[in-house]
Amino acid sequence: MSSKNAYVDKYAKGYGICYPEGHVIRFYQRICLYSLGLKGGRILDFGCGNGVHAQYFQERGFEVYGVDIISQAIDLAKAQIGDRARLISPNQSLKNLFIDKNSAPLSFDMIFANQSLYYLNNTHLRRQVDEFYEMSSKGGICFFTMMSRQNGYNKCITKVLDNGLSEVSLKGRLEEVSYIRFVDSTDELKEIFAPFKPLYIGEYNSFELYEPYSCEGSSHHYIFIGQKE
């Protein structure tokens, strides 16, 4: 069970952001640039989609590598970052996907996973975070987002699975079934992303209507910004 089919259908209908999202721009300006003085380096964009965020960081001096499981998305991302955009299979190991001229695996100064990790079940999420930590340079940072219980998707759960995922059946504007790994609290967020050291914990909610009632509800997500010590 996965959410891949929903995204295959979406991209076939022209899905994809056109501009960098506000929380990503603020992350770059407030954290990368101002707080950490990070003006360049190598980034892995996990779930890069059509490459809009990859292009945003590339234009600011970063060398960006992207992966996604949707072939239509990677075709679009290649227009932004070329062959550094790679199609992967669901739950594929990334350890040796990108190598240097001596065939050694690349290490990354930033692991960026925006709205992609919560599609993984508990086992695959744990394995992926551990792999990210291994692939990170010493002192490298991570930017991860997870869907919280405050998100409107939580109201659309039709089945709770024993692997940490919940089946979410959306009606109305979005007619699709997804499988989401929700997060209950910031304490749980920290546990999920250990051994990365937490630097900043936050949230974003890009759009929510109170009146009249909207079945889609809140778009609330948690943000975890951490570092490999």
Automatic annotation (TrEMBL):
GO terms for biological process: methylation. InterPro entries: SAM-dependent_MTases_sf. Keywords: Methyltransferase, Transferase. GO terms for molecular function: methyltransferase activity. Gene3D superfamilies: Vaccinia Virus protein VP39 (3.40.50.150). This is Class I SAM-dependent methyltransferase. It comes from Helicobacter marmotae. The lineage of its organism: Bacteria, Pseudomonadati, Campylobacterota, Epsilonproteobacteria, Campylobacterales.
